[in-house]
Structures are given as C-alpha cells and as structure tokens.
Amino acid sequence: MKIKIYCILFILFACNEKQKPVEPEYNNPFDYKNDSTPFTLDARIDNGGITLNWSKVEISTLESYRLYKSISEDSNYKAIGTFYPDIFKYIDTNIENGQSYWYYVSAINNTKAETTRSNRTTVNIKTEPVLNINGGDTHTNSTQVNLTILAHSAQQMILSNTDNFNDSEWEDYATTKIWNLAPGLGLKAVYLKVKYEDFESDTVHSEIMFDSIAPSISLTVTPDSGITNETIFYLDPTGSSDNLCSKDCMNVHFDYENDGIYDTGWQSASLIYNEVYDIGGGDKTIKMQLTDGAWIIDTTSTIFVNTRPFAFFKATLDMEAKNSYYLDAELSNDYEDGELVQNRWDFNGDGIWDTDYVNDVSCKYKYTSLGKFSPKLEVIDTYGLSGYYSLELTIKPEIEYEQILNNTYKARAIRNCGNGEFIIAGSVSTDNGEDIWLMKIDSSGNFLWEKTFDGTDFGPTDSIFTMDYAYDVQVTSDGGYIIMGTNDVTHRLKAYFWLIKTDENGNKEWDKKLGGEGYEYSANSIKQTDDFGYIMSGSSMWKFKMIKSDMNGLIEWEKDINDFVLSGSADVELTNDGGYVSTGYVSLSGSAEDFYLVKTDALGNIIWDKTYGGSGSDRAEDVLVTNDNGYLIVGNTNSYGNGGNDIWLLKTDIDGNILWNKTFGGIDDDEAYDIHPDIDGGYLIAGCTESFGTGSMDFWVFKIDSNGNLEWDQTTGGSDVDFAFCVSEISTDKYFVVGNTRIAILK
Q1: 546 in a structural domain
Q2: How far is 641 from 421, CA to CA, in rounded Å?
C-alpha cells in the first residue's frame, strides 16, 4: 500500500497602510468602534511543522495572545496555546498527513476581555510526503537550505540531489534537516522517499532557484525637486538587472520617507511608478528594496520637496471710510519657513500687482468704483515658491441723497436731459383725482421746476373727476419733452392714451387724446422716431396695442398686434432696421400669462413674435436692443426662481431665440420694472423686493454685467410699500432711482 501526500497552503497577507487612522485607535482590537479585529494571522509549512505568525497589537493594556485550532472551518476550535505579548510566532508539529487545519488568534487585555478572532487561515496536509525548502521560498542565495519533511508515521527517509538517490543512504525520519544543494547556479531540486512500517512511498521533490550573485540595483527619480500635492515624482527601477532573470522576475517596493515603513507592496521592477507628496519639509530620501527571490538589496535617492506657502487674508470694511477695506494676511504662513514669508497684493483682481513684495501682513485699500472685485494675495517663501488666495468683495453704491415723496406724489419715469438736469414724470393727487406731474431737478436732486396737467379738460363738461397718470417721458429732439400717460374718466368708464408735448420748461405745446369709446386704453411706453414722430405702446381692451403718430401727435397707424385672449405691451423700442420691437404679456387661455416679444416693420406689420414662460404667470416689463442687435427682456416670473415672484431676465438673438436667462430674487416676491444700459456695457435694473431690504416691499436696484452676472445691489425703503419704477445714470457709478415713495441718488 502506498500513501500519496499533497500540500496546499492558503495564506492571507496583511498590508501596512501609509496613513494610520486617528480614531479608532490604530490596531486596537478592544476599541468598540472597530468593525473587525484589526490584526492578522498567516501560516506556512516550515520549521518541521506549520509555522504560524501574527501581527503585533499596539495597545498598552494587552496581556496575551491565544491561538485556536480546528479540523473544521466553522466549529470545534480549541486553544492550543497562550503567549506573552512579545511573542508572535508558534510552530505546530502536532499534524498528520491527509488532514486540513484551521487557525485563528485572539488578544486578551488586562481585564481578561478577549477580542473576536482574527482572520482564519488554513493548511491542508495531503496524503503524500511533504517536502518543503526554506518554508516554500522560490529562491535562495545559499547552497545550504532548511528542509521540512511531513510524513506522519514514517520510520525512515532518504534525500538526494538526484532522482536516482545514488549518492544517499536511508536515515531515521525527521521533520527538519539542513541540506546542501547541488553545485552551480540555477534551478535546484531535492528528492525524497520515506519508509513506513510495511511500504515505501513514491518519490517526491521540491525545487528552488539558487543564485549566488546579487542583482544590480538602480533607482532614478525625476524630477529631483517639486511641490507637495502638485508635483508627480516618477520612480524608475528599470535600470536594475539580474544574472539569472529578466526585470519581470524582479520586484521592488518603496519607503517614500525612509522611515522604515514601506509604503507599497512588492511590485514589478519592469515598471515606472509615481508618488505625490502631501507633506513637504525639504530633502526627502526615498528607499527602494529590490529582490530577485534570492537576494534583497536596497538603494536610496534624495529629492527636495517644498510645500507651497499657505496664503489667506480677511477683508474688513472700514466703517468710517467709504468703500475702504482692511486686508489682514496675518494667518498666512509656510510649512518650512513658518511666518518668514513676503506678501504682495492685486487689489482689483485684474492680474496687475499693485504692491511690491513686503513683510507687512496687513494693509488698507479704498475702492474708487462699484462692482465685484477679487483682491488677490501672493505669499512667497524663501525658495521662491508662491501661494495664492483671493476672495470676492462687492462694492455697492450708498444712498447719497433721498427725497421722500408724501402720499401726494408718485414718480414713474426719469430721463437724463444731457445738461446735468433730469426730467421726472409721474402723478400727483388733487381734489379732482390724479393729475400728471412733471418735475425737473439737477444732478444733486435740487428742485428746478414742476408742472401738472389736469385731464378734466377732455370730454363732457361733467367729467370733473379723472385719474391721470404719466407712465413714460422722453427728451425730444427740440429739447422739450413728450409725456405718455393715461386719461381715465372713471365715472364714464373711459380711458385714453394721453400724449402731451411740452417745451424745455414744461409748458404744454399741444396734447392729444388717443382712443375710442369705452374703457380701453392703457399707455405704457413712448419713443421718438427718426422722422420726429412717435411710436407708442400699451393695451386696448386688453389687447396688445401699438400706435404711430407724426411729430404733432396725429395718428399715422395703429395696430392690435395679436388675437390672444389677454395681452398688453409694456415697452417699445426702435430697431436698427427702421422697425420696432415691443414686449409685454399674452395669455393664451385667459389665465396664466407669458412673456411676449414681437418684431414689426416700420408700419407695425409683424415680422415674427415669440412667447416665453412656464406654468405660472410671467410678465415682461421692459426691453432693450443690445449691441449685437439682439434683445434683453426683463420682467417678473412665477414659473421660475426661488419662490413667489422673481425677476426674470432673458437675452435673445436678433430673431428672438433665447441665448441665456437668469432669475433674481429670494423666497418672497421680487419684481422688476425697468432696465437701463450703463456706460461700461452692463445694465441697471430697478424694481422692488420683499425678500431683501428692511420693509414689507423696498426699492431694489442692481447692476449686472453684459452676461447677466450680478455685480452689486442696493435696497432702500421705509415701512410703506416702495416700488422703484425707473433708474437713470447721472455719471460713472452714480444713479437716480425713482418710484412711488421717493427719489434717491445712489453713489
């Protein structure tokens, strides 16, 4: 009878991690926050049995380790030994061929608490004799090796360097033996047979590569200096060589800090590796070990790693100096140099450094224009490496002047007369209802003159009570003014477009009532045309209305632009092709409204029209022709934004196709009524806000750039409901804004 013996070894490896977690305590099996016991056990056939090694537990309360063994994977584990904290190895010789063994280890602290088990590792001892050289190593650099022989119940054995055993004799069976390999380099084999009481085994053998010449090791690191968290260092071991094998059979691993802890596992020496350092500190020595299986040799290479300086500053507004900020960079520092750094400043964030390098950590800067600025700090260390930091500041205008209108006056529009004077149109309450009000002021808000216009002159003699409002005013080519308003004879349910032409002092030259019978006309916008006539827009019986008159107010044509259930025009502008563009709202169903934009020729014939909107109510209030012959539309939306009504801004191309859109506002109601071009290519928007400010509804004026990005905003108002209807530029960064409760200058 012959017994065949096989061996299968399963070993689980533990890897050192480069960074150790702070919490829970590293490798602490008693920490309840650990999901599993963080130490490992491996096993190999060596030293005449099964050699078991486990990792060290780094805790002060450790008292002992306990090793368990079973012939079943899931049950019947029995303790086979308890070991002091400084012992991490045990050789189990109580084994038999043809049997599998499972092991695990636990730790016990000084309160006798025992952890859950480590990983389980298994060894399967097959029925043939087992011959193992140097614990299963594949290479050796010595001709003398250690043999492990496992053949349960064997009485004798014979070993040889040849399979004919001519140079050997039988000897008593032993589980270990020191053996000399056959001379010469290369692959060597050792052969074994054993005798049992009544039979002799077949021959088994084991092989190992003998290499007495160490490999040549080479490590090239490029670049030789760099920056933490930025520079990729390439580690090239491919210059290494070996006398017996190619680069593919050699392996390397790296200790990036030369601190005795290898940061990588073994990997092929035929590849180039890389590392990015997250901690600087100057010179770094990289250690590389190389093995061909028989030899382990090492080499080092030194590089320089510098940490980019940490740049940071705080900006604090100087409450006593307008638009001035204290900039404090005290917290800036450098990993290698501490606070030995220099600073320089780009106050505007325009890429131009405004100071030289200085040692001062703080400074003060006054901004002379409005908008968003991104001051930038550069911090430079002694090696010339820089760190940067920037933040965003918004320089907004302050309320320089404010005239509160009592409940009698309401301002609706303001225009720049071009001579340092401004004309305001609105309404004033009288005993007869409301009259149109015209007032002239200078650029500081000082009163120059005012006029009122009473609409009771129109219609029957019993029309003594009228509600007359001015919605728009323009400076005409002769230096006078054209007022667009509504004459509302309330008790007769009639309303008319009311067109008033004045001279430069506000004296009426002529006026016209436009409209038919019935409560139908509501005026909103007027512009003077190239032929010195006027184009007007509004609504008529809830229809979108456009009217063209000559220079004396005589109608040349009028159009109901569409057939929607409800519609109305809020603004009209001249286009560069001699036609017009008008915006407002339409309702397809008589309920929710949409933005409406219509392009006409010089006679009011529709060339194209567009609607924009969502499921809620959306109304356009104003439109501008932009430099690219497209359009910028502003209004209010209940379909989009952050909640309630929000301001909706749309930019279209020349054909009304949307290029981009933006919403502005908070969770409450916010609305816009006017958009005005600024001299820098941006735009001013006037409206009201319930989301911001201090009152229930406040003036809201904000500046955007040509792409619709917010540059600054300002609110003003009191306890009443305050609507800003119009904004006009006085000079660079100085603006008038008017509404139902006040006239304000922002600067």
Answers
A1: no
A2: 38
Q: Residue 570 falls within a domain, yes or no?
A: no
Count of structural domains, the chain: 5
Note whether 513 and 500 are within 8 A (CB).
no
**N-to-C CA span, the chain:** 109
The answer to whether residues 94 and 155 belong to one domain is no
Q: Is residue 564 part of a domain?
A: no
Which residues form the domain of 484? 397-528
pLDDT category of residue 592 using cuts at 50, 70 and 90: confident
Q: Is residue 575 part of a domain?
A: no
- Give the number of C-alpha atoms closer than 13 A to the C-alpha of residue 267, restricted to the C-beta side: 15
C-alpha triplet 740, 744, 747: angle, nearest 5°: 150
Cβ pair 107, 62 in contact under 8 A: yes
Q: Which residues are 526's β-sheet partners?
A: 536
The C-alpha angle 287, 289, 293, rounded to 5 degrees, equals 180
The pLDDT of residue 461 is 46
State the CB neighbour count (10 A cutoff) for residue 636.
26
- In this structure, the dihedral spanned by the alpha carbons of residues 536, 538, 543 and 547, taken in order and rounded to 10 degrees, is -10
408 and 512 in one domain? Answer: yes
Query: Which helix (H) or strand (E) is 7 found in, with range?
Result: strand 7-10
- The angle formed by the CA atoms of residues 154, 166 and 162, to the nearest 5 degrees, is 80
In a shared domain, residues 459 and 488: yes
* DSSP classification of residue 309: P
Beta bridge partners of 512: 499
- Smallest CA-to-CA distance from 38 within 46, 28, 47 is with 28
| 212 Rama class: left (phi>0) / alpha (psi -120 to 50) / beta | alpha
Predicted pLDDT at 24: 46
pLDDT per residue as tens digits for the range 234-243: 999 999 999 9
Residues 14, 121, single domain; the answer is: yes
Distance CA 691, CA 476 (A): 38
Per residue in 155-202, pLDDT tens? 999 999 999 999 899 999 999 999 999 999 899 999 999 998 888 889
CA distance linking residue 626 with residue 728, whole number of Å = 17
Kindly state whether residues 38 and 112 are assigned to the same domain: yes
Single-letter amino acid, residue 150: L
CATH value at residue 20:
2.60.40.10
Name the residue with tokens 């029995």: 78
From 56, 26, 51, 49, select the one nearest 118 (Cα to Cα): 56
* Contacting residues for 190 by C-beta, under 8 A, at least 6 apart: 131, 133, 145, 147, 159, 160, 161, 179, 181, 205, 206, 207, 208
Please, are residues 375 and 347 in contact by the beta-carbon 8 Å criterion? yes
Residues shown for the chain = 747
Question: Between the CA atoms of 724, 726, 732 and 733, what dihedral angle is there, to the nearest 10 degrees?
Answer: 10
Residues 71-106 as b/e (b if ≥16 CB within 10 A, e otherwise) read eeeeeebeeeeeeebeebebebeebebeeebbbbbb
Helices (H), 357-399: none
